[in-house]
Amino acid sequence: MGKALGDNKNLRGKIGTKIYQRRKDGSTVVYEAPDKKETPTRSEDQMRVRMQWSNLGAVHTQFRKTLKKGFQELPAGLSDYNAFVQANVGVCKVYIPKQVRLNGGCVLAPYLVTRGKLPSIVQSKNGSDVMVTDVALGSLVIGDETSVAEFSQAVIAYNNEWEDGDQLTFFYGVQTVDGVTGTPRAKISGYKVVLDVTDTETLLWNVVTGLGFTSVVAPSAGYVLGMGGVITDGACAWIHSREGDGGSLMVSTQYLFVDSSVLESYQTNAAYVASVNSYGGINMESAFLDPRSSRAVGRGTTGGGSTEPGGTTGNGTTEPGGTTEPGGTTGGGTTGTGSTGNGTTDSGNGGSTEPGGSTGSGGDEG
User: Fold this and answer.
1) Nearest to 176 by CA among 131, 232, 129
2) By the number of CB atoms within 10 A of the CB, which of 43, 45, 66, 151 ranks highest?
3) pLDDT higher than 60, residue 144
4) β-bridge partners, 238
5) Are residues 64 and 102 in contact, defined by beta-carbon separation less than 8 angstroms?
6) End-to-end CA distance of the chain
7) Alpha helix (H) residue ranges in 170-297
8) Which residues fall within 8 angstroms of residue 205, CB to CB, at 6 or more apart?
């Protein structure tokens, strides 16, 4: 620290690597700014949250902004993307390592995709493993010649919560695994129809697909809206939306229904540990007795006067425990914390912060 001289006496605050500070006696002192900590903090609790961001961002990106206004009455400054992350983090936990994310990986999961005040569309598998909804169609059997008007009339006539001008959207996702890298991949497509009881010219299947707009025999009588086949390694959701007052949008609260042979393997503790290590591991000490901790301490065995390494932890390798001196005690050894590294901003996810970083809830999607 030293006194600032000449014109530098009028400087204030941080300039470059220097900090200029005015004292009560009128003099100005200058000193070196402290080095900014380059390695972000990565505690156990933080990583439990951050490791979920990658897949949340990957799934949301697959919707390609079709979920805009999908969350009603958001606070000022909260984006649709951040609302999506907040609604799902800690609820449906899926962990993909950094390399999977960089390879364009994505694991379809039963995330909440919309939240609003319209009644939810009930979706479930029937006895034939076909996805169906509770949207009744009466005696309408949808076919190649079914018009938008016929479909609209059936939906409005047999479902009290539907009105002319409402929109029915169907999202369908396909889950695959890359045959070379083993990376899980997903593709989500969306189809929509606006109910119009007067549109007798437009054929329904010219604007939507029979995949999600098919008449399925109802348990009691008549038909309900459902899929045109059995869902396998995929995901789907039907969403009801309506224009509200002042240009606002009303939506039903819906979750993705997922049938996947991939999902479970990315929800285990082993998947979490692999994801943590891919972003540099945990660099803050966690309590070994905490059940949430992924840290492991090798027990080791003594023999020939030395303690063997006890194994590996989620964040590095357990070093040898030392040597046993005659009449002494066995050294406890130290647990390595793995490599560290700064978080990176993934522009492909619309500006969301990679889990290795130390910023907020993932940023806004572009």
Assistant:
1) 232
2) 151
3) yes
4) 170
5) no
6) 44
7) 204-207, 269-278
8) 142, 144, 146, 213
Per-residue tokens: 19: 């900090």
CA distance linking residue 173 with residue 57, whole number of Å: 15
- Determine phi and psi for 157, rounding to 5 degrees: -70, -35
Find the helix packing angle between 80-88 and 53-62, rounded to 10°.
Answer: 130
Q: How many other β-carbons are positioned within 10 Å of the β-carbon of residue 283?
A: 17
DSSP assigned state of 81: H
User: How confident is the model over 170-218, as pLDDT tens digits?
Assistant: 999 999 999 999 999 999 999 999 999 999 999 999 999 999 999 999 9
Closest CA to 119 of 238, 31, 3, 277: 238
The pLDDT value recorded for residue 355 is 60
Quickly count helices (H) and strands (E) in the chain.
7, 21
| Residue 340 clears pLDDT 60, i.e. is over it | no
CA dihedral 363, 110, 122, 206 (to 10 degrees): 80
Residues across the chain: 366
Is 85 strand, coil or helix? helix
DSSP letter, residue 8: G
Backbone angles phi, psi at 224, to 5 degrees: -125, 160
Query: 114 - beta bridge partners?
Result: 254
| Closest residue by Cα to residue 279 from 335, 217, 355, 349 | 355
